[in-house]
C-alpha cells in the first residue's frame, strides 16, 4: 500500500508548478550526518495515509535523531484510546508498551505509561484505555475531555466498526467538544481476508474530508507487530508538533501566521538586510536552530535544489525569502513538521504562532492614576518605520502599506476595536504620520504589553525598557498644576442621542451624519493636537454609553485614568440636560468618594437647533468641591 500525499511542494509558492514528489537535499536537518538526506515518507493529515509496511519506519528513523527536536515545553502527553468492543484497544496498548502480543488482557487496562526515552521528543506518554460498556459511557466521556489526543480504533476484519466511526464516535467527540487531534487506527490487520484488501486512501478519504479533526490514519497488527509503535508516535507528534497552526487543510496552504513568523525569522537572520541569506547567514541560522553547522558543499546543494524548483528562490546574494518559505513548505510536505516547529520555537514562538509571554515585558509597575507612554526613542523609531513604508512619501499610509508594516506580526493589531476606527483618516483613507503615531499612543495607553509585543514583531532592536515610560501620578500633576505627560484621556459621558458620537467624529475630522446609531460599547477617538509654541499633545476621547456608566463606576479606581470628564447634552432637549446633570453628580461624587477627582466640562451639543424653553442659566448648577463646570455651546455639523 503506497503512501498517499495530499499536497505537493507548490502549495505555498504559487510560482512552482511541480506537483510531484521531492527527494532532493533539504536544509535544516537536525544532525550533521544527514543534513542533505531526504526525509523518509511520513504520512499524516498533510501527507495522507500511512504505509502498511513497517520498513523504513519513521519511528526508527526519528530515534536516530533523539533530542534534536523541541517539544514546546510539554512535560507529558495524555492519549485516550476509544472504540467499539473487540476492536483491539487493549492489545494495541499492551503490545506498544511491552513489545509483545498478550495472550490474555483484561477488559480495561489501568493507565499505561511510556517513558520519556520511548520516542525521540523525550516526552512521556500516558495511555488511557476505555471501556466499551454502555454503563461506563459517562466515565469514557470524562476521559475523552481530558485527552491531549484521541486514538479511535476499528477492526480491519469488521467493516461495521469502521462505519461506527462516522455514525457514532466522531460525532460524539464533537458533541463533547473534544478539540484535539484524532488518530484513526485499523487494528487486526492480520485477520483481514486477502480478497478484501482495499486502499486505505479510498476507505478513509471521505471520512477525513468530513471530519477534519482526523490527523492520521494507520492500519496495524498487534499479533504481527506491524506499525504498533507508530500509532502512539503519531499521536504524540500531533500534540507536540501540530499541523493545525501551520497548515490550512481547506486551502492546502501554509497559514498566514506561519508565513508571517517565518518572514520575521528570515529578516532577523538577514543581518546585512540585503533581502537574501548569504552562505554565512545560512550557516549561522543552522547553528542557532540545530546546533550543527553546514558544510560549504551542503549549502551549495541546498541552493541548487531550491533554484531548480523555484528560480526566484535564490539570487546572486543567496537564499531569498521565497526560497526560505519554499524549504519549509517541503518540510510540511514530507511530514517533517518538527523541523519547522523547532525553528519557530527557537525564535520564541508558541503553538499559537505568537511570541511566548515571557519574552514580552508585561509588568509595568504603576499606580492606577499613572499611565504608560512611548518615549522619544520609540517615537523616532516609529517615524522611521512610517517613512520607510510610505513608499510614495505622500504622508498617507495606505491599507496595504500598513499591512506590510505588520507583515511580521501575527496580524495587524488595529484591525479590531478599539483601534480600527479610532484615528483620523486622510482623504485617501490612509493614515497620516500623526494618525499612525496616535494609534500607537492609544495602544500604549490601553495595552502597553501589546505595544511592546508589536514593537518586537516589527523589528525594534533597542532595549525595550527604552521604548516606554511610566508617567507621574495624575494626583501630583493636579497638585503642581502642571504635567509632563504627552497623552491625555478624556471620558465622554451623556444621555442617549445627546451627540457624543458626533463629537468624537468631529474631533477626527469626519462629516456629520443624520442617521442615529446608538453606541452600545465604549468607543475611542485619538488625535494629535497642536499646542502653542509648536508642541504637540495626543488627546484620547473615550465615549462611555449611558448604559455603561453604572458598570464603569462600580470600580473604585475607574476614574484614576481620567484627565477630564466631558458631559454632552442635547441643547434642544430639557430632559437631556436633566439627565446630564444627574450623570455629572454621579461621576463627580464617585471621584470625590474615591479620591480620584477629575475636572469636568459640560458641552451643549446641537446648538443649531432651537433651545428648550427654560434657559440654561436658570437651570440648577451642580458643584462639588473638586468640580469645575464650564458651559460651552458648540455647533456639530
From TrEMBL:
Species name: Tripterygium wilfordii (Thunder God vine)
Name this polypeptide is given: Mitochondrial Rho GTPase
Keywords, sorted A to Z: Calcium, GTP-binding, Hydrolase, Membrane, Metal-binding, Mitochondrion, Mitochondrion outer membrane, Nucleotide-binding, Repeat, Transmembrane, Transmembrane helix
Biological process (GO), any one: mitochondrion organization
Gene Ontology terms: cellular component: mitochondrial outer membrane
Claim: Oxidoreductase is one of the keywords in the record: no
Entry-linked PROSITE patterns: EF_HAND_1, MIRO, RAB
Class of enzymatic activity (EC top level): hydrolase
Membrane topology: Single-pass type IV membrane protein
Similarity section: Belongs to the mitochondrial Rho GTPase family.
PANTHER family hit by this protein: EF-HAND CALCIUM-BINDING DOMAIN-CONTAINING PROTEIN 7 (PTHR46819:SF1)
GO molecular function: calcium ion binding; GTP binding; GTPase activity
Domain of life from the UniProt record: Eukaryota
Localization per Swiss-Prot or TrEMBL: Mitochondrion outer membrane
Main location: mitochondrion
Record domain Miro: where: 74-241, 485-637
Enzyme Commission (EC) number: 3.6.5.-
Record has Lipid biosynthesis as a keyword: no
